[in-house]
């Protein structure tokens, strides 16, 4: 069943897009990530322009994240206070990211910038997650091995503006969650990702948050950050395709519910290993598309 996308100016298979939305929603619920790191490349793979993929994907993340948060909220796995501090940073970062996005779009470099950003960030984060998850699984099989300290205190823990977050049992500088949220906001605007693939590891290793609260709190912040990104992209850069967003939204909401249930069956190290493999796989596919020789070496352009 073909549907026409007015902003992207192309036709797509509606069932294919619904399935893609369901897959991303499943990952969102399972891992606590927005899933945009996968959806934006998938849309680009089927021919949707990169700028439209980024702008529209942010809208789909809102629905998928709400669905995932509701499931985590019922289990009491959301730290609202810490999520609110991250959200403040996320809104500021989103505004900065949309501004940068507009500059790149006017320069005609937005497609290359998005692809390179994905290759670099996904390759780096995915590789680190694979290494850490592998080490954790090895340590699990060697219980007699000496264990390092659970909490390493560095200069980050000496930052000012300390706040207490009772739900997570943390007493840390508010600048840490604000900064993490800021980076996530920039990523939402420029790459169309919720930033969960970066936020989740940062919340675990930089903030030392309990793992059980990370997914729900991350999705809580992603809801509002992606909503702000959608409004700003639509008003500033006109890159949000409502028809495409609707299809992705329906699939994402359904998939998130199943993903949340599936996530409870995996240990933390198993989940990180699986997510790391997915992230690295997407990065390799994008890198190949950047260097591979296209099937059609020539194109026709009509001058004005």
Order of helices and strands: EEHHHHHEEHHHHH
Average pLDDT works out at 75
Total strands: the figure is 4
Shape descriptor reads globular
User: Unreliable segments (pLDDT under 50, ≥5 consecutive)?
Assistant: 145-151, 300-304
Beta-strand residue fraction? 5-15%
Question: Sheet with the most strands?
Answer: 2 strands, antiparallel
Compute the separation of the termini in Å.
35 Å
Integer count of domains: 1
Describe this structure in words.
- This protein is mostly helical and 304 residues long.
- The chain has one domain.
- The chain has helices at 14-31, 36-45, 50-74, 80-107, 110-141, 175-191, 196-205, 211-236, 242-263, 268-291, and strands at residues 2-5, 10-13, 162-165, 170-173.
- The chain has a two-stranded antiparallel sheet. The chain has a two-stranded antiparallel sheet with strand order 3-4.
- Strand 3 and strand 4 (170-173) form a beta hairpin.
- Helix 2 (36-45) runs antiparallel to helix 3 (50-74), helix 4 packs parallel to helix 6 and helix 6 packs across helix 8.
- The protein is globular and about 50 Å long.
- Residues 145-151 and 300-304 have low confidence and may be disordered.
Topology:
Elements: E1 2-5, E2 10-13, H1 14-31, H2 36-45, H3 50-74, H4 80-107, H5 110-141, E3 162-165, E4 170-173, H6 175-191, H7 196-205, H8 211-236, H9 242-263, H10 268-291
Antiparallel strand pairs: 1-2, 3-4
Helix pairs in contact: 1-2, 1-3, 1-9, 2-3, 3-8, 3-9, 4-6, 4-8, 5-10, 6-7, 6-8, 7-8
Subcellular location: Cell membrane; Membrane
Pfam families: TauE
InterPro entries: TM_pro_TauE-like (IPR002781), TSUP/Inactive_protease-like (IPR051598)
């Amino acid at each position: 069943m073909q549907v026409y996308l007015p902003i992207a100016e192309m036709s797509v298979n509606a069932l294919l897009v619904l399935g893609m939305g369901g897959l991303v929603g499943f990952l969102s619920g399972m891992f606590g990530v927005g899933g945009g790191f996968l959806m934006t490349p998938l849309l680009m793979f089927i021919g949707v322009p990169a700028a439209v993929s980024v702008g529209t994907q942010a809208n789909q993340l809102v629905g998928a994240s709400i669905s995932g948060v509701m499931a985590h909220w019922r289990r009491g796995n959301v730290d609202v206070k810490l999520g609110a501090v991250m959200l403040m940073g996320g809104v500021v970062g989103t505004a900065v990211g949309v501004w940068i996005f507009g500059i790149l779009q006017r320069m005609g470099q937005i497609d290359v910038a998005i692809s390179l950003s994905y290759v670099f960030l996904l390759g780096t984060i995915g590789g680190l997650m694979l290494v850490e998850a592998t080490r954790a699984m090895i340590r699990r099989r060697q219980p007699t091995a000496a264990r390092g300290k659970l909490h390493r205190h560095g200069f980050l823990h000496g930052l000012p503006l300390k706040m207490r977050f009772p739900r997570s049992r943390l007493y840390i500088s508010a600048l840490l969650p604000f900064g993490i949220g800021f980076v996530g906001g920039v990523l939402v605007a420029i790459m169309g990702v919720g930033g969960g693939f970066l936020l989740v590891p940062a919340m675990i290793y930089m903030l030392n948050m309990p793992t059980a609260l990370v997914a729900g709190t991350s999705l809580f912040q992603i809801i509002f950050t992606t909503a702000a990104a959608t409004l700003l992209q639509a008003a500033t850069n006109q890159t949000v395709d409502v028809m495409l967003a609707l299809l992705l939204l329906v699939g994402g909401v359904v998939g998130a519910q199943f993903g949340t249930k599936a996530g409870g069956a995996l240990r933390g190290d198993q989940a990180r290993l699986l997510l790391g493999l997915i992230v690295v796989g997407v990065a390799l596919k994008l890198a190949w598309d950047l260097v591979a020789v296209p099937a059609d070496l020539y194109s026709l352009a009509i001058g004005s």
